[in-house]
């Protein structure tokens, strides 16, 4: 793995701080809604923070900018991790977060591209994301644009056969501008993925479909930034080369030490004393890990 340059250490520090703040913002959204997806949101937080603050080319004041990079949240139930990022970047006022899931709000418990600036696909039913992203990647290339398309999938989502149809097509088309990231947190709403339908080793399965595949620590901004850089280097060197998949090893509920890795906390509610414990855990854990990653 290519090491992040010393000049990038300030970037890594900023990303780690953003990851803490976005987790705390997610807790506020859950408080508003009365329940939320702690497990799948917290497992992919570093992935989404590193994408939006470290890779994706977007214009908050021009959400439909034709040359923007596209992001498809295949696991749409993790949208409460994404909304605070979009608000922080300026896609919509931060005050809108206080309306999450309320009647008439544009911020539902799954993202709606017709209502929310910065959302490129209305995800809900799992399994469609990679197909949509593949079509986007093919489309922007045919249009002569240099846009990148990133799709975030859950490892439980791989159970859907449509994912593998898209994987075959993307490789056949040589969509080097397509980056898939699998949030391999090893649990889903029904339990451990290993017990339900295991696709491990996920990287080798994608490689068999003709993808460049690698595993990364999904909670390390250093590792994620290095992997993004390698993806861009390959894309520049071989425009019609294979697509890339990063299998990001993560922990469900990462940051809240008393629910980490538990399928029971795919969705739930932490209130009162438990919420205060969660806040303390996030601040404590990520203060320590921030020092290590820097």
UniProtKB/TrEMBL annotation:
Cofactors demanded by this protein? thiamine diphosphate
Looking up Pfam families in the UniProt record yields:
Transketolase_N
Domain named Transketolase N-terminal is located at 22-272
Query: In its keyword annotation, does this UniProt entry include DNA-binding?
Result: no
Keywords, alphabetical: Thiamine pyrophosphate
Matching InterPro entries, A to Z?
A: THDP-binding, Transketolase_N
Q: Does the keyword Zinc apply?
A: no
State the similarity comment.
Belongs to the transketolase family.
Q: Which PANTHER family does the entry mention?
A: TRANSKETOLASE N-TERMINAL SECTION-RELATED
Protein's name in the database? Transketolase
Organism annotation: Rugosimonospora acidiphila
């Amino acid at each position: 793995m290519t090491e992040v340059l010393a000049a990038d250490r300030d970037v890594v520090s900023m990303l780690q701080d953003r990851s803490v703040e976005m987790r705390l913002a997610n807790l506020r959204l859950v408080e508003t809604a009365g329940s939320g997806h702690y497990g799948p949101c917290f497992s992919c937080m570093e992935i989404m923070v590193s994408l939006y603050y470290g890779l994706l080319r977007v214009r908050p004041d021009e959400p439909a900018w034709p040359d923007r990079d596209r992001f498809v949240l295949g696991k749409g139930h993790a949208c409460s991790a994404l909304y605070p990022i979009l608000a922080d970047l300026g896609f919509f006022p931060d005050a809108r977060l206080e309306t999450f899931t309320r009647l008439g709000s544009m911020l539902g418990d799954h993202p709606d591209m017709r209502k929310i600036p910065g959302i490129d696909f209305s995800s809900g039913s799992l399994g469609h994301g990679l197909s949509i992203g593949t079509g986007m990647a093919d489309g922007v290339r045919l249009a002569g644009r240099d846009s990148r398309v990133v799709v975030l999938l859950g490892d439980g989502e791989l159970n859907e056969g449509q994912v593998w149809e898209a994987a075959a097509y993307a490789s056949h088309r040589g969509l080097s501008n397509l980056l898939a990231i699998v949030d391999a947190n090893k649990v889903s709403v029904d339990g451990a993925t290993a017990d339900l339908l295991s696709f491990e080793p996920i990287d080798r399965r994608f490689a068999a479909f003709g993808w460049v595949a690698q595993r990364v620590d999904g909670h390390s901004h250093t590792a994620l930034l290095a992997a993004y850089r390698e993806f861009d280097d390959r894309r520049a060197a071989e425009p019609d080369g294979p697509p890339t998949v990063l299998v990001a090893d993560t922990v469900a509920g990462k940051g809240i030490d008393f629910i980490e890795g538990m399928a029971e906390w795919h969705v739930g509610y932490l209130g009162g004393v438990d919420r205060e414990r969660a806040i303390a855990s996030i601040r404590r854990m990520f203060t320590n890990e921030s020092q290590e990653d820097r």
